[in-house]
Design brief:
There is one protein chain. This protein is of the alpha+beta class. The chain folds into 2 domains: 144 residues, Aminopeptidase, CATH 3.40.630; 197 residues, Cathepsin B, Chain A (Alpha-Beta Complex), CATH 3.90.70. 29% of the residues lie in helices and 24% in strands. The strands form 3 sheets. Strands 1-2-3-4-5-7-6 form a 7-stranded mixed sheet, with helices on both faces. The protein has a 7-stranded mixed sheet with strand order 11-10-16-12-13-14-15, with helices on both faces. The protein has a two-stranded antiparallel sheet with strand order 8-9. A hairpin with a 2-residue loop joins strand 2 and strand 3. Helix 7 packs parallel to helix 8. The longest helix is centred in the last third of the chain and has 20 residues. The chain is elongated and about 75 Å long.
């Protein structure tokens, strides 16, 4: 991406040359480090980080330049499999402030997000940075969360978002976010979020921290060739039912799930026994899995009816790993399906700001919402809590 000529030219006066935007180069790293040193006392990007963002990351790093001098930079990240952009960093040298450089970088960030066909751009800003918040607010960004003690000096952050092509539907349930605390508890973390949204005066982040592991023990299906087992739809449905929630279970195939991931006949026999136990427990609880597929239209209908859907996806489109993974559906429109993803992948420089209302394009949904050779689809719909069950 070269110097932009599609953005409005800002009036910076006659005394100084007007800044332009261009893609950052490896030769710019020394200047970028000087910008970091001048702008930030903590949480600075390192030379290694800049090298990574320039060479290997799914990112756009660009600089504002005038008279051959770099005045500031912007960095936008894109995560595989989603239609979400994140303005990871924006900085302008103190001596260049007041010349419209920050606004120019911000406009270019949004243009970059559009060229990547994203539906929204998000950012984090210090809660005490009134000047930056004013710029973002004037540009149409709105805060949607406060994160306490976010920065290295314990400063708070505001999370702000500007829709590019998407406006959330306020009629859908308001679902709090919780990231999983282990590598193998995406199902329990997703279920906790769904249950918190469907009971009065609750917040997923305030629930018993051991509840995630309790649900995992109850709902786990032994299907991994090594390591810990994960949770299947039948076990999650039973866990929700036990905690007083109406529940629907939708599965695209009958019988034991995930058998095609295991070669050993003895392990397959164990999976079959575990599944038979889940089916017996569901029958005793008056529950029955529905046969069917998982589509955006079905999920939208469920949300409008007050259900909170958990869906099983394959993470291949996200990280090129063929792993089953549970997420919570938070919204659907004609372009995207939004999900809360309980997994914050440190290798992808993700924080929970990247995991809340993550948009999956409808055109990608069929590939994402299935797993294995059998193209398994599964969903657990959680309703409003009706009371305690033993």
């Amino acid at each position: 991406m070269g110097p932009t000529d599609t953005l409005p030219r800002l009036d910076v006066g006659d005394a100084e040359p007007a800044p332009t935007i261009r893609t950052a180069l490896p030769s710019d790293i020394d200047a970028l480090l000087r910008v970091e040193e001048a702008c930030f006392e903590t949480d600075r990007l390192s030379r290694r980080s800049f090298n990574y963002f320039l060479s290997r990351a799914r990112a756009e790093l660009f600089v504002a330049e005038a008279g051959g001098a770099i005045l500031g930079y912007g960095l936008v990240l894109f995560h595989r499999g989603t239609a979400l952009a994140r303005l990871y960093s924006l900085a302008v040298l103190p001596e260049a402030q007041g010349r419209g450089v920050a606004q120019l970088l911000l406009l270019h960030s949004e243009q970059t997000a559009r060229t990547h066909d994203t539906v929204a751009i998000r950012l984090e800003v210090r809660a005490d940075n009134a000047r930056a918040i004013g710029l973002y607010t004037r540009q149409g960004y709105k805060p949607f969360q406060t994160l306490h003690h976010y920065y290295e000096d314990d400063g708070d952050a505001w999370r702000m978002q500007k829709p590019i092509r998407f406006v959330p539907d306020p009629e859908f349930p308001n679902i709090p976010y919780l990231h999983q605390s282990t590598d193998f508890t995406c199902g329990p973390a997703s279920l906790i979020m769904a249950m918190a949204a469907r009971q009065q005066d609750s917040d997923a982040t305030e629930m018993d921290p051991d509840e995630e592991l309790r649900i995992w023990r109850e709902a786990t299906t032994v299907f991994m060739t090594s390591g810990h087992g994960g949770c299947g739809p039948h076990g999650l449905a039973l866990a929700a039912h036990k905690r007083g929630h109406p529940v629907r279970t939708i599965v695209s195939e009958a019988g034991p799930l995930f058998l095609d991931t295991v070669r050993d006949s003895k392990k397959k026999a164990v999976i079959e026994r575990v599944h038979a136990g889940f089916e017996a427990d569901m029958a005793a609880a008056g529950l029955q899995a529905e046969s069917g597929g998982v589509t955006p239209d079905m999920l939208e209908e469920a949300l409008r009816a007050g259900w909170v859907p958990l869906i099983l996806i394959s993470t291949y489109l996200f990280n090129r790993e063929k792993t089953p993974h549970w997420v919570v559906v938070t919204g659907v429109n004609d372009k995207v399906v939004l999900v809360h993803d309980p997994d914050m992948d440190d290798d992808l420089s993700k924080t929970d700001v990247d995991c809340v209302h993550v948009p999956i394009r409808r055109t990608d949904f069929e590939r994402v919402a299935r797993f294995g050779k059998s193209r398994l689809q599964a969903a657990v719909l959680v309703g409003r809590k009706q009371g305690n069950r033993a």
